[in-house]
Structure prediction request, 436 residues.
Amino acid sequence: MDLITQAPRGTQDVLPEDSHKWQYIEKTAISIAQDFGFREIRTPVFEHTNLFQRSVGETTDVVQKEMYTFEDKGGRSITLRPEGTAGAARAVLEHGLLNGVLPVKVSYVTSCYRYEKSQKGRYREFHQFGVECFGASAPQADAETISLAMLILKSLGLENVKLHINSIGCPTCRARYHEALRAYFEQHTGELCGTCLGRLERNPMRILDCKSPVCHEIAAKAPVMLEYLCDDCAAHFDAVKACLDAAEIAYELDTHIVRGLDYYTRTVFELVAENGLVVAGGGRYDGLVEELGGARVPGLGFAMGLERLLMVMEENGCDLPDAPTCDVYLAPMGDAAARACFALATQLRDGGVSVETDVVGRSLKAQMKYADKLGARYTIVVGDNELETGVAKLKDMKTGETEEISLEDGLYTTLYQKSLDRELAEVANLFSSVAE
Ligand code: HAM
Prediction:
């Protein structure tokens, strides 16, 4: 089959008619995170494979079967990033940011790659908005990170997403928990799937995450981590919950959250939409920086899946901005007018007005149809007569009203004033609807 005109399975194109929705979500998230002190970081799309083996963990599905790994021409093993945390941790370490003032707070919008079975909300290339905070050990940092994720969703109009939280402790208390889990699952070795039998030795907590119905049922009665937390981890979790309570952030304790990545310690959380899709996930990773060769610097963060977020927003009928339209369409008739319109367009664009004019050689009728399709707010027809007099008609495409306007001077000022008036009217509208 000829696949040249087909995007690879699990990938999607964002077409021009939808890209403004992505820009809106990304801009909202980045700007709210900025209010919390997070600054954007950009890291490479590929990293050395062992970065992910070390951080995400050898026993995870991500590392075992989902990474896009290849050898480059220099014989190095390279992997397309399956997530954003490892690259961010590598970058702050490499550039010595952790030797300066702490915490270091970074945010990112990145594409991620996982060779997963593609299905609704699960892709092989997907995008995340995420934040990472290095050097904050207090429980307030956990609550703050969670509240940031919640505020972003709220600002996007998603108020009915549920916050699920759990604590998976530290390596010390988790070792005791692993023993208890092994003892429990060993009673069921005859029923567990082949993959889980392997997990039993290396990382029994992964069994809690198994999608097979039989393993799932067995896991439902397994011991829970919360009962094995050491005193410090229990106190930390209690303090996180107390902060959430103080800020009236509702949550559900979900002892089954284990997360699919190995670097987590203590608090883990997921934000679950009404349709069951997990739109964001994160938690604390106090051992990650050390694992990568740095000092013992605590860390925490979350990432939200942008495809899932947009899908859930559309399903919930959340407000999304309209596609941008142009302020004015200049419709020339004839070659001289086309040159004049081009010169006018250049001048107007220079002042920040969005302008389109004919670049196809259409008839006037076809141009007006096109201007309508563009959603142009105003149109100006320029022919020989207008060139001679220097005066044209500005047509309001919404009301159909026209007014005379000078092409020589004042055009920019008039259009600028009109767009200003419109913005003021919108702000006034907004205030009056808030006041109601
Ligand atoms: P994650 O739970 O693997 O965590 O991914 C975070 C979010 O990315 C998920 O909640 C989901 O919305 C989205 N996502 C994951 N896989 C896919 C997929 N195949 N298709 C579509 N969306 C997907 C992490 O990646 C961690 N790095 C989050 C984190 C940051 N933890 C601490 N800091």
The first strand starts at residue 39 and ends at 40.
